[in-house]
Amino acid sequence: LLSFTIFLILFSFCDNNLKDEETRKKEPGVRSGETKQNLITGKAGEVLSPPNKETALPKGSPKNPKSLPLTMKEAVVLALRNNLELMGFRYDPLIAQEDIIRAESVFDPVTVLRFDVNESNINNTIARTKSDNLSADAEINKKFYTGGTYGVGFDTSRNRVSGGTLGTQLANPVNPITRSDLFLNFTQPLLLGFGRDVNRAQIEISINLQKIAALGLNSQIRDLIAGVETSYLDLLQALRTFEVSKKSLGVAEDLLAQNKIRVRVGTMAPIEVLQAEAGKAAREEAVIIAQSNIETFEELLKRQIFPLEESDLWSLNIEPSDKPIVQKVQPDLDAALESTLATDPQYQQAKLNVSNRDINLKVARNLTLPTLNLQGNVRTAGIRGEVMDDFDPLFRGDSSAWQVGLNFSYPLGNRDAKSQVRQGEMQLEKSKLSVKQAEYTLTVQVRDLIRQVNTNLERVRTTGISSRLAEENLAAERKKLEVGLSTSFQVLQFEERLTIARNAENLAIIDYNKSIINLERVTGQILEKFNITTKY
């Protein structure tokens, strides 16, 4: 019995360690790729450290810059370091991890220690009797995945009687008397509350909820990267529009200067100067608007990559180092759909919700079973006059007792449990429909994004042709003006068409790159591009 008691105590601690290891293996987190910036880590101290000026700029930047040359990759790195909203999402898996620990704690062993001293004095007409009692006991109780609870313990007591009548003294031949007991008791459910699935239900649900939290972080990282890349492209588009507007203004100024010369020498009517001046004023307005758009998109990008408290960084002028290129891609629909369904956070979250609903349904079905518990206890005792003398008969088992029994109960009708089962079945079916709906939505979305990529690539081709032809037409019209076969108004019209064509070409290139970014975000390739992995 002593050997069994020691084994049970050791098993309880080993079982607890195994549970911790099992939980750690299932623990989701966020791990860094092989980037030198170490963007995302699983260590709370690094993940949750607040941004500062040292981390808010790319490595190698001057200490007091007035402008900041910035590649798209550097902008993404800064956003991952400094974005406060992302930092908030990084807490979610760590918070959910504590729920797993709390769910596991139900199976932690519980130690109970008790100590009691009391004294009683009885006075009567014959004699005075005094009784001194001292008792102490220790017990370890533990619940197992089977649903059973087991306890082992040891208790001892010492009683001394003094005074009293002769009859009292004869009734207590051993004085003081010491009694020690070693016992084991257990209760094991056989129907209701039995089984690993039922008793680990909350643990498994908590593990799934942590995976859902990690997937939420995954989704936030995707959205942040795509948002930064889009803002970077918007700033590039604004800068290109500004350049086109400046060129258009330069053409108008050059035309105005030439017309003034021609008017002075008498080869052109003064009305041509007025038309050229009107054209110049309109293009000056376009330059002002383009400059305002640069500031707007630059501000938006700064919000995504700079810490709010580093106010001096916000005065920097961002100079995008990358230029938009047209890298032809031909997305494969089947491969894109496969990658999307394998990695999409919302789709995976929906599948985990199905798993949780299934676990809850198993628990609900178990609640419909009657209570049938196997109960028992084993006890051995030793009695002697001195404190240590009672251990020898205790371990020999001279005085022992055992008891085994069954306890049965069942609520008539059990409507509450049956209602939970029906509710759980409907919730499970509803969650399965959510998975199908998510799959349908993603399929439609991927098809649409691939179509956008192909459409925008064709736009790049056609707008490039249009821009080249508009440039040739303007050159021809200016030659006609030189020989008096055209007017300033007509030249300005052709120049305006060239401006529109150039802006359309630039917009098509930007839109093409944006459509690729959106497709990469949905398929998960946007994380692979920056070598970022999330574990869940």
Short account of what is shown:
With 536 residues, this protein is of the alpha+beta class.
Average per-residue pLDDT, rounded, comes to 82
Radius of gyration: 41 Å
> In total, how many beta strands?
10
- Fraction of helical residues: 55-70%
Structural class by sheet pairing and helices: alpha+beta
Largest sheet: 6 strands, antiparallel
CATH fold naming of the largest domain: Outer membrane efflux proteins (OEP)
Low-confidence stretches: 23-53
Q: Could you say which overall geometry the principal axes of the C-alpha atoms support?
A: elongated
Task: Count the DSSP helices.
Answer: 14
Distance between the termini: 45 Å
InterPro entries: OMP_efflux (IPR003423), TolC-like (IPR051906)
Keywords: Cell outer membrane, Membrane, Transmembrane, Transmembrane beta strand, Transport
Pfam families: OEP
Region (Disordered): 23-68
Folded structure, characterized:
Its main location: membrane. With 536 residues, this protein is α+β, with helices and mostly antiparallel strands. Helices cover 60% and strands 18% of the residues. The strands form three sheets. Strands 3-4-5-6-8-9 form a six-stranded antiparallel sheet. Strands 1-10 form a two-stranded antiparallel ribbon.
